[in-house]
Design brief:
- By secondary structure, this protein is α+β, with helices and mostly antiparallel strands.
- It contains eleven helices and twelve strands.
- The strands form three sheets. A seven-stranded antiparallel β-sheet has the order 1-8-5-10-4-3-2.
- Helix 11 links the parallel strand 11 and strand 12.
């Protein structure tokens, strides 16, 4: 009797495993089909069906990022990088060996902190321009509503994050200078191994509004999956120390398959410090404390967060360059051309700004 029950149990488990494998295979095929359909739609319209973006996320979690890497390799064959001859930029003119060094560190560790910084006056000018702006707020206890704007009262903040609207961000002259900076574009193209497209810019303040990290303000660990492959630049526009919200990153967590299966299967969620440090150890945990003007390049497919503030404020500009507009629909309108170089680049390299409406 006991042996019969064991045999039945083994048979049931075998059938269950088979059914699970068949179901996983079917889901994989469905997601690949949805992804292919969405990429076709995106190539003609510039937009991505929501279900196709969800399929990209699903495939990322199921394959540990390997699907993204394979698609990125294909894209690099037919979207060769722009030959940008301009050399002057916020970084020193970059030699091939310097670009290779930056790329190697990005591929190995997932980040690179540049020695050069933006001038303080440049950073302060951005802060002055948005001093009286209206912002979209993000916080756990406030319903996210991008149509409802708020002033930033630094003496009494109501939210952990105040973000300038997309179109107000691209209307800042200094931002236009940075999105037409040849040195930053070259770094991104070298990493992506393809033509790059600006696919998202954010500018805003982080503030201390409560005593614990705020999920909606991205103050707990997470990974991004809005594109196939991208490189993000984080630029400090204020001095940032350990109490004023340093950007944090887990070194090496951007690489395919590096996260345990149980983390991937949780999906697109936030992760606590204890869980992350148990996997990677404290040696991989990085807090970027630095002076204003500091530029950090990062593959934010890796685990990252903005540390909750204990005091003061942090003003941060972030923008990403991707190898495709496939993914989240986040277009930017260019209302005015303030920067002559930006105007020139939009004519010479229109693909860089395919996600912008002029």
């Amino acid at each position: 009797m006991l042996s019969s029950l064991k045999a039945f149990g083994r048979s049931a488990a075998s059938k269950s495993a088979l059914l699970s494998a068949v179901w996983d295979f079917a889901r994989h095929g469905r997601d690949l089909a949805s992804l292919g359909y969405g990429m076709a739609v995106n190539s003609f319209t510039g937009h991505t069906p929501k279900a196709s973006h969800e399929a990209l996320v699903s495939l990322f979690t199921r394959t540990g990022g390997r699907t993204n890497d394979r698609i990125a390799s294909i894209i690099s064959f037919y979207r060769r990088p722009y030959n940008i001859n301009e050399k002057a930029g916020v970084l020193s003119p970059l030699s091939d060996s310097q670009l290779s060094e930056i790329q190697s560190k990005l591929e190995r560790d997932g980040y690179f902190v540049f020695d050069e910084r933006l001038p303080e006056a440049f950073c302060d000018k951005i802060a002055d321009r948005i001093a009286d702006a209206d912002y979209v707020v993000r916080a756990d206890d406030i319903v996210y509503d991008p149509s409802k704007l708020h002033k930033y009262d630094r003496n009494s903040p109501i939210a952990a994050n105040y973000t300038l609207t997309r179109d107000d961000t691209t209307d800042v002259p200094e931002v236009q200078e940075l999105v037409s900076d040849p040195t930053l574009i070259k770094v991104a193209q070298n990493y992506l191994k393809s033509k790059s497209i600006f696919t998202g810019l954010t500018l805003g303040y982080s503030a201390r509004a409560k005593n614990e990290p705020d999920d909606n303000a991205a103050q707990t660990f997470h990974w991004d999956m809005e594109r196939i492959k991208w490189l993000r630049f984080f630029i400090y526009l204020t001095d940032v120390d350990e109490d004023t919200g340093p950007h944090c990153f887990i070194k090496g967590s951007h690489r395919a398959g590096v996260l345990p299966k149980q983390v991937y299967t949780k999906g697109y969620v936030r992760h606590g410090d204890d869980e992350v440090l148990k996997i990677f150890g404290s040696d991989c945990y990085l807090e970027f404390t630095a002076k204003k003007g500091t530029i950090i390049a990062e593959d934010s497919r890796g685990l990252h967060k903005g540390k909750a503030l204990n005091k003061g404020e942090r003003l941060l500009l972030a923008f990403e360059l991707s190898n495709s507009t496939f993914g989240a629909d986040k277009r930017h309108a260019i209302r005015h051309l303030h920067s002559p170089r930006f105007a020139e680049f939009s004519r010479k390299y229109p693909g860089l700004y395919a996600n912008f409406d002029f």
